[in-house]
Design goal:
Blueprint lengths: L6 H9 L5 H10 L3 H22 L1
Length: about 55
């Protein structure tokens, strides 16, 4: 079974990490607070997706 079952779960984990155990773990591994992690994800995720789209 994968860490993320669908894209909605992935978005929830990244944007609301305090409500998901995986998000708490990711924030902890990154060494940041869950609120900071959500802010970083909200800025970084669209940039990553744009870069991936350009490469396709």
């Amino acid at each position: 079974m994968s860490l993320f079952n669908d894209i909605g779960n992935l978005m929830g984990t990244l944007m609301q990490p305090d409500q998901h155990e995986e998000g708490k773990n990711l924030a902890s591994k990154a060494g940041v607070d869950t609120n900071d992690f959500a802010k970083i994800a909200s800025i970084g995720l669209p940039l990553l997706l744009q870069g991936m789209n350009r490469n396709n």
